[in-house]
Every structure is written in C-alpha cells, then in structure tokens.
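Homework help board

Subject: predicted structure for assignment chain

Our instructor gave us this sequence and asked us to write out the predicted structure in token form, then describe one feature. I got the tokens but I'm not sure how to describe them. Can anyone check?
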Amino acid sequence: MPARGESIVLLALFVAPVVWGQVLPPEVSVARHAGGNGYDVSVTNLANSPITALFMQGAGTLPGGRQRWILVEKDYAFLPDEQPIKAGEKRVLRAAESPELKVALFSDGTAAGDPEWIAAVRKRRELALEALNQVIRLVDQVRAHPQDQRDAVQRLKALEAAMLTRAQAQPPGQQGPALQGLDSFQARIIYGGVARELEREGDPGKTTVALEDRLLAVRRTYLGLQQRVTGMAPELSSAAQPPAR
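My token output:
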C-alpha cells in the first residue's frame, strides 16, 4: 500500500494480455488522497477511442483481519451526467482502497484487460439491454391494458428486489468479477425507476390523459437509455429491440 504522496503506475498489460485487438490499455496511477482518506486514481486513455466502461478492484482489511474487495466501476452508459474518457484525456477518480485495473471497454467495441472481466462486463451490458426491453414492454402493456398497472408495479418491484439481493450476495472476502447480474445502481434505475413512475398515477387501472402522458414520457426516457447503452456497446447493437409503438 503506497505511503502518502507515493504513486504506483499499473498497466492492464501487467495483469493480463490485451484482447479484442491491439488496443492500448489506459495508464493508471494511484496516490493517497491529499486528505489522507482513500486514494486518487488517475486514468489516462492512451487509445484512439473513448473509454466507455472502466472496472478496477482493490483489497482492504475488515475488523478482525478479514480481507475485503472493493470494486471501482464506471460504466458511462448508465451515468448520463458523466461522459466517456476521451482519447488522450486524464481523469481522476476516487477509491476507498488502492485498486488494480481489470478491464477497460472502448467506444469502437474493443477492450483491454483480464478476459474473464471483459466477458463479465459485456454480459452485464447484455443483461441491462434485456432489462430495458423488458420494462419498455411492460410500459406498453399498461398503455394497452391500464388494469394491469398494479400487477406491473408488483412485478417490477420483485425484479428490483431480486437483482438487489443478487448484487449484494458477494462475500466481502471474494475476489474476481462477481458481475452475474445488474448492479444495485442499474437495478434501481431500470426496475425501480419505472415502478415509481407507474405508482405516481392516482387512479390506477383507468385510462387517463395523465397516465398516457406519463407512460409515453417513461417510454421515451428508457428508449433513450437503451440507445445510449447500445451506442457505447457496438457489440450489442444487434440485440433485440422492443416493438415500435
């Protein structure tokens, strides 16, 4: 663990070979935060394409000496207020522990890092697109059959709860890409966000102008998110899309 002011440079090539073409991995340097709490992680994109997702992992110690693993993840497809890391750009992130780069995905579909992590991150994006298709279809179902609104809300809440349970199931001492489903942030955005929007209607089960307007707005929002994910994941561009309405 570096001392205050000390830096360590980590290259993804040091961890695992570059895959999906000879793309340069980002350069990562880690230094103690000036305030002494956590670390500043400087990421410099050395490739020609923007970084659309970045995953790093660091180890820490729990009370009693038990080891814990901290995941630092940035999937910019789900962060509308943040932009991908442009070619040549240096960006500083914060982390609770000193992390090691595991995978970087780029806007042209290439990736650098540990093949197991690359596969896991790509799978998570695929699951996110499937979830977005699912909620858009549920919205269309309620538009066609307003009486199904309560059932749709219950189903969305159950899906959110199941995904949150899965996301929190990784023991703190486990190492590796435990990315078997959506993370808690994505689950709350996709499933929880639509459930809350459907619950806002004061007279469920009836076709009203307010309900139709709300459902159309929700549909536009989630179609936009779907397009953002697909745009940042060219390998998933052929994923099944919900029917146009």
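Reply (TA_rk): Your tokens look well-formed. For the description, you could write something like this. The CA atoms of residues 48 and 87 lie 5 Å apart. That's the kind of observation they're looking for.
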